[in-house]
Amino acid sequence: MQVTETLSEGLKRELKVVVPAADLEAKLVAKIDEIKGQIRINGFRPGKVPASHVRKLHGKALMGEIVQELIGETTRSTLEERSEKSAMQPQYKLTEDEEEANKIMDGKADLEFDIIYEVLPVIEVADVSGVEIERPVVEVEDSEVEERLTQIADSSRPFETKEGKSESGDRVLMSYLGKVDGEPFDGGADENAQLVLGSGQFIPGFEDQLIGKSAGDETVVKVTFPEEYGAAHLAGKDAEFDVVVKEVQAPGELELDDEFATKLGLESLEKLKEVIKQQVESQYGAMTRQRVKRQLLDKMDELHKFDVPPTLLEQEFENIWRQVTAEMNEAGKSFEDEDTTEEKAQEEYKAIAERRVRLGLVLSEIGEKSQIQVSDEEVQRGIMQRAQQFPGQERQVFEYYTQNAEALASIRAPIFEEKVVDYLLELVKVEDKTVTKEELEKLISEDEE
Predict the structure, then answer these.
(1) Is 80 exceeded by the pLDDT of residue 47?
(2) What pTM was computed for the model?
(3) Which of 14, 108, 127, 176 has its CA 20 to 30 A from that of 157?
């Protein structure tokens, strides 16, 4: 067998492989000898089928198996000898000439094929011991716990029917029908809506126009949808709502005591406050982790500069671009609305795709050299967490991931990445800095721009 490099351009490689017909013939003879004792053919005793007859009946099929095995084995051994790793599954080019192909299947012609692939770049992992990262930490104040407690209480507050006109803080039961340019629109109607006046749940200006109304009143509420409204076909539009007030309810008293906590399944008010504080700390902790990870990845991107495999880059860009265009179509927006052009947007997202691919390769290299592993138990937990997002379909979700290698990899990959990030954070210098929640939110917002 002869292997010749025909292309070495950047990370692109092409190899021509020639397997002599004699080698193919030898492998076919060995394959026939191996299976002839297992074949059952009428007219022949078990194990007595002549090799020539086996070849006549199954020769081409067996040669097809031999060719497939040769291609796979040759690719693995050749890349190993060359100390190369293919970025993706190599492509193969065989003869398209039918006559030539038949000769190969008959063992009368050399097998020639090309292996086309892109190699993973050799990555020199940088020393990160001098990297400095600032970890923003929010200290949860008692006042914030009390604020969250009040929000929980408000959501549990009882309301009682009242006579007379509605006031801010009252709850209104109503039906409404929304119209734009005199025509009803999807999602603009409800027969039994509840709205606490002053809560800011509805479109700005809607709630104010219901203050001073009584049960049985009919009114037309006129509002303008915000320019950044989620439904693009309504954004910035003037609308009118035909509203019928069915009932006005006044908020009842609510005691924030142990009895209130018991109704929520906790033994005391102090325990409820403790749980709320833990929840708030967890929320800020997740934001802190996001900020720290972003800083770390920025540093890793600065320290590692190398060309990435074009196919990986194109694949990542296509994934990003498909998501971007889908979101824009759903929102009914154009690139002009975003003060850019499609060409400029593509350039920006290609840069993002390149960063993602490069960082992915760097983290993979670090994880491999540091022998970071993802256990089966960690993968199982990841699958269960995903399954919990689909109540009632847990079994189907579990089966989907356990029976689909690509889907399973989508669970394993982020777990692996987080473990590599944790490993790196042990090596870099991390300094805590106390910040307010507003400052942390601003940092996260800036990272997402």
Answers:
(1) no
(2) 0.77
(3) 176
Instruction: State pLDDT tens for residues 14-39.
Output: 999 999 999 998 988 888 887 766 66
Res 217: pLDDT: 96
Fold exhibited by the domain 158-253: Chitinase A; domain 3 (3.10.50)
Closest CA to 137 of 429, 435, 425, 428: 435
**Straight-line distance from the first to the last Cα atom of the chain, in angstroms, rounded to the nearest whole number:** 55
Cross-strand pairs, 269: none
Nearest to residue 112, comparing CAs of 21, 19, 1? 19
- From the candidate CATH numbers 1.10.3120.10, 3.40.50.620, 1.20.1540.10, 1.10.150.120, the one assigned to the domain spanning 266-448: 1.10.3120.10
pLDDT at 331 over 80: no
As a three-state string, the secondary structure of 359-406 is HHHHHHHHHHHCCCCCCHHHHHHHHHHHHCCCCCCHHHHHHHHHCCHH
Q: Which CATH superfamily is domain 2-118 in?
A: Trigger factor ribosome-binding domain (3.30.70.1050)
Q: What is the mean pLDDT of residues 104-133?
A: 93
